[in-house]
Amino acid sequence: MFMMWFLMILLASITLHTLLCICSNVCPRKCVCDSAKSVQCFRLQSFPTGITKDVRKLNLGYNHIKQLKGRDISGLTGLEEVILSSCGVEVVEANALRAQGVLRSLDLQKNKLHQIPRGLPPSLETLNVGHNRITGLQESVFEGLKKLRLLDLQNNQITNLRSNTLSTLVKLECLYLDGNQIETVQGALRLPELNLLSLGNNKIPSFPSAFFTPLQSLTTLHLPGNLLSRVPLDLPHALSYLNLDRNQIRALRNREMGQLRNLKSLSASYNRLVSVDGGLRLPNLTVLELPGNHLRVLPSRLSPKLERLDCRQNSIQEVTFQHLSGMKQLKHLFLENNTIWNFEANALRNSIHITNLALEQNLLSSIPDGLPESLIRLDLKGNRIEVVQEQELRSLKRLQVLNLRRNKLTSLPQITLDLLPRLRTVYLDGNPWNCSCELLGVKRTLLARRVEIPKELCNEPVRAPGDSWRAYLMAQDRCEEYFTETAPEDQVEQTDTEEYYDYDS
To answer: How far apart, in Å, are the Cα atoms of 171 and each of 127, 147, 148, 161, 178?
Structure first.
């Protein structure tokens, strides 16, 4: 009898435990739950109920939740990540998330918040409130957030940045304030761990002289799309990447940048640059981007480590060996849309690693002599080149892409093909071609080598005076004789001309 009662109690206990487990694993309606204790919900009009208390990640993005109250989330003490992006959230109740003692990431971007939520948990490491309607920052909002590493405030309506409002964020590493309306910056930014600061697309005319001084860990600084008329003073020595695009800067001077000996990438595109100090004393610079300025002279005596130089859309007239002699590691040189008429022979002879040279839309009358053998792509579109000379191509044994569009070429010598053994693509359209037998032979050889060329190149058959059918056939016969005579003995093939010419045109 005792054993029977014992078994009944044991069975009831097992059944109750099973029911509790089943109940605890019930997933809320319109939600998906997984074994990693993650819940994602869809098409909600309010905060979901019935979420298991041990949930770690809650994704409510792209729903219709206007407010978040403490009672909605108070029991979910195991939450590590909350996503409420693109929900139309207007209000987050003060201290609504304070009980979430292990919450590390909070995503509230693309909502309708007018201020940063108050009473956020000290455990927070990532806070994204970008794309809202926040107009100002209060120091009290960030109190206690000593573990915060990333703060995203981009695309809000902030007009004034007071550095002291962020001073409590002693562990902050990344700060994004792009796309606001910041006009004034005050104080010194005392964030000892900050390594990335992005303030692009604001209305900042200048920075206080001590603003950057405390940022000794800063390696990346983005300031594009502001109203700067000069490079900010006292930039941190640790800086590796600096973006100053779309400002109003007229000069790059050593006295403003000489301390940036660790700088690897500098971009000052679409400013008003008329001068760049020789050398810039930036020994580790590998990338320099200066398109869309007013430079008349190519910057010279730059870092010997420079690999990429972009000076498109300036007013540069000539390129000499003196300009480029120190750039021994250069790989990419972009000079299109200038007024270059003189590219000195052998100007790149020290740049034995260059693979890409862009000279489109200039005033060149010939292909530059003495280009390095390392070149893989050469762009000469939109110049005034009338003739391709043998000596101009002799060194280009590795060239794969040649762009000669919109020049003044009427012919292309057969020797071109022999000198460019690795050619894969050649752009030739937009030239006043004379479709001679020689040019048709070049086209035939290119096609046989599977080189990509414009389909419309000399599609019209060779015409003779009088334009009669008999004259046309005679012209074709002459071309066939020419092909046979000029082809090497071991490569002469009887190829049907109909493969290349349309007799009905």
So the answer is: 13, 6, 6, 19, 21
SS3 of 276, please? strand
- Contacts by 447-452, CB closer than 8 A, 24 or more apart: 447/500, 449/417, 449/423, 451/423, 451/424, 451/425, 451/426, 452/424, 452/425, 452/426
Q: Is 0.85 topped by the overall pTM?
A: yes
DSSP bridge partners of 186: 162
Alpha helix ranges (H) inside 394-498: 415-419, 437-448, 469-486
| 96 and 69 Cβ atoms separated by less than 8 Å | yes
Give 98-130 pLDDT, tens digit per residue: 989 999 999 999 999 999 999 999 999 999 999
Cα Rg of the chain, angstroms: 34
**pLDDT tens profile 263-280:** 999 999 999 999 999 878
How far apart CA 252 and CA 232 sit, in angstroms, is 11
Q: Which 3 state secondary structure label does DSSP give 430?
A: coil
> Do residues 94 and 118 make contact, with C-beta atoms less than 8 angstroms apart?
yes
* DSSP letter string, 66-109: -EE-HHHHTT-TT--EEE-TTS---EE-TTTTTT-TT--EEE--
